[in-house]
Amino acid sequence: MGNYFVLNHASMKRYNTLRLDVTVHTLVMPYSIESFVSAIRDYKDKKIVIVGNGSNIFFSKDYYDESYCFIITNLINDVELDGDEIVCEAGTRLHRLAWFACEQSLGEMAFLEDIPGTVGGALFMNAGQWQYTIGQYVNWIEVYNTEKEEIQRITPDEGFFAYRYSRLNDLPVYVLRCGLKAVPGNYNEVLSQMLEYRHERYVKQPRNFANAGSVFKRPKDKNGEWLFVWKLFDAVDLRGFRVGDALVSEKHPGFIVNAGNAKVEDVAAVINECKKRVKEEFDVELELEWRVI
């Protein structure tokens, strides 16, 4: 076994932003890229689940047995400026990356400031907001390929990233680190932009309850036109719909929140009801943005 921390029968409540209190048989915490790779190799016979900040994920079970291995990457978080690149490890929080860029007077990273995830997860789902996505700034991605059992470097081509998707999802790889374009900027302008973005999201989003971010991907109608999830939900009276302590946010129906001690089955019931009503009323299939474990 490699040099990393191992916990057995551990609660995942502190490691997911929805604060679901599920238990896992095996939890591993590497503290370097080398120990991360060691953990992947040592537990290759298990179903490995990578958890960064714990946002944008939904645990579908109360207990995950010894056939699973959960690897927490929040200690793998080095970030540095190397010439005209920002080099950051997979567990680097997007909030920290944005502030690092600001402190270095680098522009165009402000949009990441209030996205509650890590670099590794952001690369898989091409995280972003407004007209920006992280994929626009990626020079290279260092990964561990489980089929070849080696570290590789990927240089994304034009079609590598798409809306809430990257080709990483189709490859047998785990993200280790990446190099991002360092765009010169003005410190005061970047700082002002970051604070403006944060204010806008705090005004609109339900920060008073635990949540895992936007639940569903933005759908399209039969004519290919984008639809707003919150408008669909309001039309079928889903705002405030509740099962146990899981409910559709009153403030922003695009979010399902934990109002206290929501259980896995409570959240699942709310998700299913949302999909059911929208399908029946509008014939629109809602697709989860959350990653289901």
Explain how this protein is built:
With 293 residues, the chain is of the alpha+beta class. The chain is built from six helices and 22 strands. It has helices spanning 33-42, 94-103, 119-125, 187-204, 229-235, 264-282, and strands at residues 4-11, 23-30, 47-51, 57-58, 63-64, 68-72, 79-82, 85-89, 106-107, 128-129, 132-133, 138-145, 150-154, 161-162, 165-166, 173-181, 183-184, 210-211, 242-243, 246-248, 256-258, 291-292. The strands form seven sheets. Strands 1, 2, 3, 5 and 6 form a five-stranded mixed sheet that branches. It has a five-stranded antiparallel sheet with strand order 7-8-16-12-13. Strands 18-21-20-19 form a four-stranded antiparallel sheet. Strand 14 (161-162) and strand 15 form a beta hairpin. It is globular. 38% of the residues are buried.
Task: List its salient traits.
alpha+beta; Uridine Diphospho-n-acetylenolpyruvylglucosamine Reductase, domain 2; Uridine Diphospho-n-acetylenolpyruvylglucosamine Reductase, domain 1; 3 domains; 5-stranded mixed beta sheet; 5-stranded antiparallel beta sheet; 22 strands; 24% helix
